[in-house]
Design a protein that fits this description.
mainly alpha; 18 helices
Length: 372
Amino acid sequence: MEVSESLAYYMRGAITVFFITWMVNLYPLRRRNRMMSWLFVVTAALTILFFKDVLLFSPALQSPEMENLFSLADLLCIPIAGAFFTEVARPGWVTWRKLIVTTSCQAVFIPVYLAVCSPYVMLVAYMAAFILALLTIRLVVVYAVRYQRYLADNYSYDEHLNVRWVVYAAAAYFCLYLVYFAAFGTGWLSEAAFNFCFMVLWSMLFGYSRRHQVLAVVEQNSTELDEAATALPEKADETAAATADRQQSDVYEEIWLKLEACMKEQKLFLQSRITISDLANVIGTNRTYLSEIIHLRKGTSFYDYINEYRVEEACRLIAAEPRRRNTLIELAERSGFNSVSSFSRYFFKIKGQSPKAYQAGIAVDDNPAEGE
């Protein structure tokens, strides 16, 4: 037996043990939320799909026809994993019915191949898997963009909430399959390399999933819509329309002044996990109005609006204590940021330099002799 073949068999066993281990670890976590529940289901399905490869250790089953059947079964990973990616980007979208339908569309090629044993069946199956992968990526991107927009409009932090990672993971996952089938073929070495990369990718996915906090994206309920619809009079004619516009302008101005007072006097932005609903309750309005006003007055999302205040607070702290070298953790906590990474990233976005560089510049300005 060649070294490459031995390595391929070893990696088959390793990846099977890998998924069995994670399936056991995820079992008690499956009740945490829908995402973890579906992750457990997907992991169990992948465990079965990889466990079947153990059968190839038997010489009696090592034939081109059997390898093709196993390859068709492997393609079931596309819709199964796609269901998980979609669930992360759009919580609540995936159902058993949708999973069964998409998986059946790919599984139908197995009995067809058994009936005709034609290489054209394999070609059509690969094309179908490719199209399904593209559709899944597109769906994940669309839902992820909507999710991120909702997050920015309602939350002042995004640690363990943003879903950008699932977009990259979905693209990497499907590209891995594409490269394997298109470039490497079915050689033993490529088989081993694919399994290794597959384990690395899923290790990252498991890590991100365990840290990810599922955000229940809820559309505006009927109560909020009723408030928005009845808050101002209907525009029956030009006079009524002008009156309604003035009333709306007055209402918006009042809410804006209250919001600015909360920021400048009460410094509510220092609450690291404040949401737009929290601010709306303090001001006495609803989050729909508040979000619209922030967009109209500042042209930014709630997330940007709050974090701009936090950056300015960090600059004020640095300027107030130029000789004290506050650590990034101290500055992040004292200015309301939920993490050092978010603080550094957003500070650079606003000021064009890192907090450390800004701090060093303030220290030099305070003591010109040091800069000479």
